[in-house]
Amino acid sequence: MATIPQALHLGAAYYPEHWPEDRWPEDFRLMHEAGFNVVRLGEFAWSTMQPEANTFRFGWLERAVDLLAAHGIVSVLGTPTAAPPAWLVQQHPDLMAVDELGRRVQFGNRCHYCVNSPEMHDATRRIVTAMAQRFGDNPHVIGWQLDNEYNRVCFCDRCQGAFQRFLREKYAALDALNEAWTTRYWSQTYSDWSQIPIPIGRHNPALLLNFQQFITHSYHRLQHLQIGLLREYVPDHIWITHNFMGWFPGYDHYKLAEELDLVSWDWYVGTGYHDYLNSGAVHDLTRGFKRQNFWLIETQPGHVNWSTVNNSLNKWEAQAMAWHAVAHGADAILYWQWRSALGGQEQYHGTLVDQSGQPRPFFREAQQIGKAFRKVSELLAGSTVPADVALLNDYASRWSIDWQPHHEDFDYVAHLTHYYRPLAARNASRAVVSADTPLDGYRLVIAPALLILDDGRAAALEQFVRQGGHLVLTIRTGMKDRHNALLPSRQPGPLRAGAGVEVEDYYALLEPISIEGDDRVGQSRQWAERLRILDEKSVQVWARYGRANGWLDHHPAVTAHPFGKGIVYYVGAYLDDESQQALLDRIMKAAGVEPILFTPPGVEACLRQRPDGVALYFLVNHAAAPATVSLPWPAHDRLQDRTVQGELQLEAYGVSVLTRV
Ligand code: GLA
Ligand code: ZN
Fold first, then answer.
1. Is 149 in the active site?
2. Domain 389-591 listed as CATH 3.40.50.880
3. Alpha carbon nearest to ligand 1 atom 1, residue
């Protein structure tokens, strides 16, 4: 079992290979001065580690790791497989991926490999084994990162063959595949596995879904290979991670996270400023991949180089962001990157130390964060984020909707976030978890556009409600099976009895339409479902459509149905923001979900719970102006080390970590 360090870590990505060795001591001294205790290195250094097929050079990396340790800084090593070097690619040109148009990817960027290339797998075996042999027992290496931001999709013939074999293993008989995929439609019936294409553009929905699952499977294979190679030499207590990219849709993150000891992610704002009601959802998503704390292994020091306008974060904004991440379960923050390399593709990216080797103004902010981290690191050790509310996330449902949005503005993540924001605005404790996660412990479960609903999922949800849980079903919930075929029943499929309603029809909307609730008039945009009441006796209608397209007029739009000891809500509309807040407030009240604390807009309150039961309250002011929070109880402010009572003042982007006294 890997031991995940409990202390808070702060650091950066550092590339010793970019600099003469006699500069390192100065960099490490500055890191120490910033309060850093971790550095991530190695993840793109393949050509330096293995300059040619039979030459490995790790001395420089070992010296960097050791010198860092002498400055009190531990190392996370990245396997460099996201950057296969030129000599390797020259030896095996078809190690390179092929794009949708059949063109081989050009050398000179990164993630250019075909994930199923046997030559890539062989080369991975050699470099990862060599690294593991050299660093597996290095006491200063506390963890490993595999590759970097898996993302490439390859369309080469070999991938097509592998996809066909994947399908053969899954379906065993072609008849079964033809049946599940409705291939008689447009004469797609396959009489041989070799006829099945890799989908390009619009395609059979089942083929699309299976190809996406094949991508997950392909990265899973490469990841599994790397983990196995590392584990030959890396002791079990050392953790292995991969740096995911938040809502990136390319594969099923739950599947890839299973084998990792720790999940980490890379958070960039790009253009503009962070919106904590949205970014909280991404932290919670990442925490939900394994339902445990995570690392923010890359984040933006000031600005990026790849967006439309690479504006800098405001002064102290990164402070609020760092604590926001910690409050949502991050145990480490690493900036990307330490120093601007003189060449290479990312010359203009934000850093802590500039091209001249001197700290940028941002350095002082990071140092401040480092100081504060040290104050509460021990206090936070082992604490985790509890949740009353779970939002269910499902990649297959998301992909299916992405391929057939039916309304060009309909976006799965935006819709999920539309349910997340009202919870976040009220400081409800919440999580974003896989739709296949056990649901015990939650009071309220929301299944936003959980399109794919088989009997297993439905049974778990029904059981949750029978035992007293509150369940929100939304538009586009309960429509398809695991092959991406329509269920031969009305929405919400197997949950119709629980919901007490079914969907008679769904309508993509050109214009918003009005909705009349018990106490307010609002709107539905993009989408509306006409609900038919099945259980006349007990379904409560919370809102109806106003005059719309004739089909929807005066039909139920939002319902609540007592079922077992709980309630199932069906939200057939995509409500305007205010109505959505009012609806969620009413549901939270019914479900007994209380705010962690009441805060003014712009200030969030979060909770982490220590193993000994002590509750740690985080107040983060995400606004550029001071704010005041009224505390219901006297507290110990752990950062300022003082007792506070009544009104608590927070500076612009200010933070408090409180325990009750
Ligand atoms: C990604 C990569 C990093 C770096 C940053 C720049 O997250 O993982 O190597 O390129 O983007 O923002
Ligand atoms: Zn390929």
1. yes
2. yes
3. 266
